[in-house]
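Final report, closing paragraph on structural work. Over the funding period we assembled a curated collection of sequence-structure pairs, and we close with a single example.
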Amino acid sequence: MSRWKAPHLTVIAALLVAASTPISANAAPPATPRPLASGPVNPGFDTGDLTGWTVTEGTAFGPAAVTAIDSYWGGPFHHRGSHHLWGHAAAGDDATGTLRSSSFAAPARMSFLVGGGWDPERLYVALVRDSDGRVLRKQTGPQDEAYVRIVWDTSAWRGQGVHLEVVDRKAGGWGHLNLDDVRTGEAAVRDDNGLTFRTLGQAGQPTAPTAPRDFTADPLRPQFHYTPYQGWINDPNGVIQWRGRHHLFSQFYPDAPLWGPMHWAHAEGPDAVHWRDLPVALTPPPRATPTDNSGIFSGSAVDDDGTLTVAYTKFTDTAAHPGAAPETVAIATSTDGVNFTPGTEVITQAPPGSSAGFRDPKVFRDPVDGRWKMVVGSGDGGRGKVQLYASDDLRTWTYTGVLAEGDGTTGAMWECPDLFPLGGKWVLLYSTNEGGQSLQRYAVGDYDGSGFRAERHGILDGGGDTYAAQSYRDDAGRRLMTAWMSDWNVKEPTRVNGWAGAQSLHRELFLAPDGRLGQRPVAAADSLAEGAPVTVTDKTVTGTWRLGRGETARVKAVLDLGRTTADTVTLRLKASVAEATVLRYEKADGTLSLDTTGAGYGTRATYRTQVKPSPDGTLALDIFVDRSSVEVFTGDGAALTARVYPRYRESQAVEFAAEGGRLHLRSASLTRLGSAVLPD
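Its predicted structure, as stored:
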């Protein structure tokens, strides 16, 4: 121990001497730390370059990534200011890299615009603490070039030194990220016009496996439409009322809000309106390769003498399984409505003339001959078609031929066919993609057990978001239908919250007096009402008049066209001073349009249909407004459906307006609607 004592004492003595030595009058005082900035330098890249930002790795964010380009193949970017950071512009999707902002003091709240690919592990904007490099918050993109605003609660780190990192470690398709308009403090939550941003971003969503699922936390999640809590859904499958309960299956990919190896999600409820989730019904085999997308495609359900039986397309990714048949038909069964047997293939190859595809079997009991029949979607040579099969036991099927075929103008592939009797006629539903636009078509005609002869053709819903419709006959004898509220333009801003896709409200189908296929909301939708409606009668509107406000609401109105002198009548839904979804009726030609060009995030389009007033000269409207959808029904059975995603919390007003005269409302009402989610 003695050998350590002397140096120790020497150090103490030296410190005492130093402490007693006076500071020279000419010595500089200790430096005062420079206060941290309140936000990053050049938060919107409006200098036109990377001033204030540093490329720390790779080539993804070179100087060329800062651009003034305001639109891309799918529409406008919706950026703010003169410039923004477009991750694709510098070196495309294959480049990788990271970009760091200047340091600033963490505020209580911050927000920014993000676009580009979805990949939480390889593509994200991160808030990083300077002192230890810890990632405090992170957010990936929406798989769309158009920007979505992310809002973060950063109060836990208020005042600490932080910086932003834009991370791109993904090469290949959608391997880029876009950033613009970083805001801190009060500006992070309020726009320049004083409106409040909706709080989007997965940081605000309870997604941990052990966390309770909160279907109300997400301001864009529909409250009375079926959605996945996390992941992706598309086509509704296997809709049926079985043992008194309504069942809804959906194409489902649980691992991302993107299309992937398909499962069948499963929900059931008492009334075709309220739903509770059941365990996933069908799952695909394990992936043979990392990119193997083999899965369980769309299909249908029937009651086979008390056994719930589903027929579906077994899809095999031939890139991962060379030589396999890409699409076959399989059967699975359940005796309890929850657990299903492994599927058994019953049709192992497509019939000739199916080069465009062979999928989506819809099974029904044929009243013509009492046998089971199956229609399957197909196409060949640019002409969509429906193939027909017959069976006595749901296991052995005989190909009977082509049920119906297009003329080349209605799409090269007819998906999700459905054939059923209604009102003394037969109806054929099928879905097509025509020039990039998704359409739900129908035909009304006659069926003799082997062939269908159409007498009338039409589009079931004039909006942009109705596809893969599937129907069933319930215990009350009604023909009920639901559809995927799709957007083939890939506008799904909800991906930033980890989910995408929604099913429409269930609808009752009927034949109108002129032979058109009509639809109306299922009667049980009345049970969604919460509280007394706001109601007016015999109201004359000149200019603009507000009926009320409602984020989730049902709006009913009866327009007295005989006493209306206005050339155009409009109804602004989900409205604020900055945005609205506009329903417009042109009295001269009977056109009803739904305009989403100023509705917020999502597709900018105007959808149209023709409507016929009632014999008494009135036009009845029945409108369901959910957090990110609008469904419009008219008295004559027409419909317009669109997904809309408002940016602001204040966008909840319902306003009537008259142009070129006055509007006379025989009646109007607004009823707030509650949740359709049943406890698990």
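Residues 146 and 410 are 30 Å apart (CA to CA). The chain has a mean pLDDT of 94. We thank the funder for supporting this effort.
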